[in-house]
Protein: ATPase
Organism: Virgibacillus kapii
Amino acid sequence: MLTQVEITHTFNAPRELVFKAFTESKQLQNWWGPKGWTFNVSQSDFCPGGVFHYSQQPDDGDVMWVKFVYNEIIVPKKIVYTSYFSDEEGNIVRAPFNEKWPLETLNTLTFAEDGGKTTITAIVAPAASATEEELKTFGESQDMVHEGFLGTFNQLEDYLSKVSK
C-alpha cells in the first residue's frame, strides 16, 4: 500500500517569487485552497516551530479549520510542515470529510529553479503516529490528494501570472 503521495508541478516564475507565494499570508490568501472557497488567515508565523492557522469555507458548506506547524525551512529551497484539521482554537480534530483520515500529515515541499522556471515537488505522507486504519484510508485517497494539490497549484499558476508581470 502506498503511504505517500508525490506531486510535481513546474511554474513559469523564478523560485524566489514562488517561495514567497507559499510563505507570505497576504499572498497565500490569493490562491491557497479549493477554488471558490473563502479563505481567512488566523495566524501566520513562518519559522521553524511557527504556526499557520487558517479557515476555509465553500459557499454552500461549513467552515473548516486547518493548522500547519513548520518543522524545517530552508529559504528558498524547502518547507517541511505537519498539517492537521483543527478547531478554531487550533486543537486537532478529525477531518470533516472522513473520520478515518490521518490526524496529522507530513508535507515536504522542495523548490528547484531551472532557466527561470520553478519546479515544486510536494510529498505528503501520514505522520508516524498514524494507525493502520488511517494508513489504509490515506492509501485509498491518493487521487483526492493529487487533485487537491493540482487544483491548488493551478490557482498558484494563475496568481503568479498576474503578479510576475
Q: What stands out?
A: The domain at 5-36+73-83+94-163 is CATH 3.30.530.20 (Alpha-D-Glucose-1,6-Bisphosphate; Chain A, domain 4). Helices lie at 15-23, 25-28, 132-140, 142-163.
